[in-house]
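Aim 2 progress update. The chain analyzed this quarter is reproduced below.
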Amino acid sequence: MTLTPLPFTNETIDALPGSAGLTERRHAAAAALAETPWPTTEAEEWRYSPIGKLDVTTYPPVAAPGPVRPVDLADAVEASARVAIVDGFVVHTDASDPVAIADAATNQLGDLPVAAFSLLAAALAPQPTVVSVAAGAAVAQPVVISNLVTTAGSSFPHVIVEADSDSEVTVVVVHQSADVTALCVPRIEVRAGSAARVTLVELQDLTRDVTCLGRVSATVADQGTFTGWTAGLGGGFARHRLDCTLAGRGSAIIYNGAYFGSGVQARDYRVFVDHVGRDTTSNLRFSGAVDDHSLAVYTGMIRIHPDARGSNATQTNRNITLSPDAWAESVPNLEIENNDVQCSHASTVGPVDEDQLFYLASRGVPDDVATQLIVAGFFDDIISASPVAPLADAARRDIRRRLSMGEPS
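Predicted structure tokens:
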């Protein structure tokens, strides 16, 4: 087993802000990482991805935040509270009741992860931040978090969202970057209490020389609901992993995702939902398009645990290939250990429908315009599901631009 040298030292960890307990945890993560092999395409979880081309040693950790600049998409969203993160460091917070924003205590971080990049993030995240909402509170406007990458190297933003019982909150996270070569490893944890309603809206619009290996993990208590919407547009190699545990009876997840790859971009989506409690519900819908020499990978796994009687689970992944050199892989899976459930999955990969093109051509619509109309319609159902209009509009603009102008390969 060959282990990759770590791109940091103990002195790097000691220079990070935080309590003695947090520093101890970072060193424990670094020690575990030193004994953990980096992932390769031989592992099923990374199969089809370009992980073999990523050399983590070329991205030294960013030691201090770079210059703050406006984050256009985040600033366009009206907010009840704001968090600004630059190169992994929280540089500004603004909140008032019922939202509280604070540094995470060591005991709020839970057990150490086991995967390589999660251990890397645990070792090098500057100071995890907790956004909490009081029991019974309904937050009128979203909590807006901007994650800005400005400096070459690696950054590790980490945000925890804690929604107490019977609370309601929408959290918006916008990932943008300057024109730098960087690795960003964001971590978002959602903890939805009993009957809480948490909505997470993410837009990833990083520049092409940024690799983003993001992960969202959510735990939902009884009668709670986690609603998610994500759009992956930027970055070179961009991976988005979602892990959701429906722990309590009657808990639910509703998650919509859209992604577009052009040039030589790589899109990698991994979705894992565990139905643990009874009468739980999951509804996953993803739509993607690939053009030029880009690729997209979707892997979904819905697990129905033995005591999860009455679960209802669906997942759908649809892909359009717009170029003969583009490639998409779709692998939805079900693992069912209880007979009293309803489960389904669907997957499609293919070019633009020839019958639809012919229909539009017969009415005088040029081929390129017809393709734009069909692809825009293909995405509209997912994009319209965004509860935050400025981000939905941004996704539509990006897709229209790519279809009308093309992208260099």
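The first strand starts at residue 81 and ends at 86. Residues 10-352 form one domain. These observations will guide the mutagenesis experiments scheduled for the next reporting period.
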